[in-house]
Amino acid sequence: MKILVCMKHVPDMESKFKIAADGRWYDGGDLAWRINEYDEYAVEQAVRLKEQLGNSDITVLSIGPERVKEAMKKALAMGCDRGVHVLDDRPSDRDAMAIATIIAAFARGRNFDCIFTGMQSQDRGSGQVGILVGEMLGLPAVSTIVDFSCNGDNRYTVKRELEGGVRAVVEVRGPALFTCQLGLNTPRYPTLPNIMKAKKKELLTVPVTELAGTGNVQDTVQLFFPEKKGGGLLLEGEIPELADKLIAILKEKTTVLA
Amino acid sequence: MNMLLVAEYRQGKVLGNFHELLAFAAQLQGQPSLFIVCDVNAPPAFPGRVYLADVATYKEYDPSSHQKLLLEAVRREGAEMVVFAHSSYGWDLAPRIALALGAAQISEVTAVVDGDCVVPACNSKLRRRVKSLSHTTVVTLQSGAFSAQAPEVGPSTIIPLEIDDATPYTFQGYETAAAGGVDLGKAAVIVSAGRGIGKPENVALVAELAKALKGEYGASRPVVDAQWVEHYRQVGTTGQTVAPKLYMACGISGAIQHLAGMKKSEFVVAVNTDKDAPIGEIADVMVLADLKQFLPVLTEKLRMV
Ligand SMILES: Cc1cc2nc3c(=O)[nH]c(=O)nc-3n(C[C@H](O)[C@H](O)[C@H](O)COP(=O)(O)OP(=O)(O)OC[C@H]3O[C@@H](n4cnc5c(N)ncnc54)[C@H](O)[C@@H]3O)c2cc1C
Ligand SMILES: Nc1ncnc2c1ncn2[C@@H]1O[C@H](COP(=O)(O)O)[C@@H](O)[C@H]1O
To answer: Which of A143, B74, B119, B274 could staple B92 via S-S, CB 3.0–4.6 A?
Structure first.
């Protein structure tokens, strides 16, 4: 079975963000980067599928600048077989439609049986790319899965997570695409021997111009920090003092200590 | 502007969230009509055109037929904007509509400023202002961003829709999470643990503090996904909705899906090492501290109160 996983490199969300000079995205300079959380579940599910079926080959694909190779190496160490790095210095300039077009252009004609993406990226969070890729390739695509099983014969039963903890059980026949939700599985930590092995795996670089198609259908006008709504009190200082202050506030403003 | 609002139907009921879509349409001074796949004998109350397809034929979840039905409604209505809730139904169907129409999809809209949409970025730490460049625009609206507006009374014009479709999706039904041991909805005080607790042993810090405050403890999703805490203690869109007198969010960043479950709390205290964490936007008090040091000291002092 041929499996494709899409993976995005995103900043650690606890980073201190700065707005870039053009005012339309964040400044990538001083940030710590990691695999988009949702995509870690996608990588893990691909590896589990291969472990279940045997005789499979997993390609991990990421569109981004040179640094995304680091994240791809982790995916290879987790068990992907080969990496395709679509080199693009400013992927943030492309909207979801343009990113999906690139992924679909790569996947077309390569006959993947099963494609995994994250349900959303943590930085842009559009939640579109996966479904768009599925539609562009004419494959059934199911979003927000929290449970996945492949019953042989290219049939998949997945559970979509709905609001309030309800799940919808859906069956599709492959080839198909799935977008992965948090908690789908427990992503593994790469072991040292697997990290060593990953160094020998193929990591191909493709210039984005070979795959890019249409222009954007939307434009980011501005990226900005939300206005602080005020009202909230910030307490800073020594721990015991902070505790005393908080207790005094709770006594004054709430009835829970009465 | 002609707008088509997409209402949702689940487990035999029309969901109320289309009232938020109505508020959005009113803000943009658009002319809304409604699309829904539901029980043909019980359409939602809506004064205007309702494009209606039979759920008995097209099921509650079937993106293939729902896409075709909705595209037919968009065409007949000449809609320039298709409006969804940013929900499990909306984010699944919207991209399929956007692609078919060559339209921009703007996801999780929280506000409209001078014709541009504002959406969150980077787990709500930032906001992004987005302009559509296409003729038709598809939007999904963040839950709660536009306060629900009940439809005016007036007669509906029902327009039945039918299409032929050989769908590749088989919807087999629903599974509901098993109800758990504690009902957080009844607790007067809830102390919740987020990913900032770092390791499972630290759940005890939160549980102890909750006990000292005669309350219950809850958790954000990553803590539940990691199985450090039972699912019935999860607060948020895919967990419980709570409104205690005091909610303490410890090591929780304040993602919208968490806030949706606790923002009606009377008093909110956040304990966080990141001054810019979005939980600060709704917290009454933000304690800037490492929870591992702060919680034990607070618990100890509370025991002596
Ligand atoms: C469809 C959907 C549904 C979802 N449903 C839910 C839901 O029901 N409930 C829910 O909670 N989430 C839900 N989520 C996930 C949500 O988007 C966030 O990913 C999640 O809420 C983040 O949890 P967190 O705040 O604990 O972790 P993080 O976002 O990782 O935040 C950790 C916080 O801890 C702070 N911190 C770190 N170390 C310390 C320390 N030592 N002391 C103090 N603070 C520290 C950090 O500064 C940070 O602010 C959903 C997501 C999706 C897409
Ligand atoms: N630059 C990228 N490279 C590879 N995959 C991506 C990229 N951007 C988005 N994706 C995939 O699409 C999913 C949804 O992204 P988004 O639509 O931006 O929220 C992500 O979880 C990834 O799996």
So the answer is: A143
Asked, for residue A247, whether it belongs to a domain, the answer is no
Contacts of B164 (CB under 8 A, 6+ apart): none
Residue recorded with tokens 């909110």: B268
Residue found by looking up tokens 């996947």 in the block: A107
Cα–Cα distance for residue pair A166/A150, rounded to 1 Å: 21
Domain residue limits at A61: 2-210
The minimum CA-CA distance between B76 and chain A, rounded to whole Å, is 23
The pLDDT score that the predictor gives to residue B165 is: 93
Size of interface A-B (CB pairs under 8 A): 253
Residues of A in contact with B119 (CB under 8 A): 125
Q: How many domains does chain B have?
A: 2
B81-126: pLDDT as tens digits: 999 999 999 999 999 999 999 999 999 999 999 999 999 999 899 9
Considering every ligand atom, which ligand is closest to the CA of A8? Answer: 2
Cβ contacts of B271 on chain A, cutoff 8 Å:
none
User: CA Rg, chain B, in Å?
Assistant: 22
pLDDT tens per residue across span B241-296: 999 999 999 999 999 999 999 999 999 999 999 998 999 989 999 999 999 999 99
3 state DSSP class of B269: strand
CATH number at residue A56: 3.40.50.620
Ligand 2 is surrounded, with C-beta below 6 A, by A 6-8, 36, 38-39, 42, 61-64, 91, 96, 99, 117-118, 120-121, 124-130
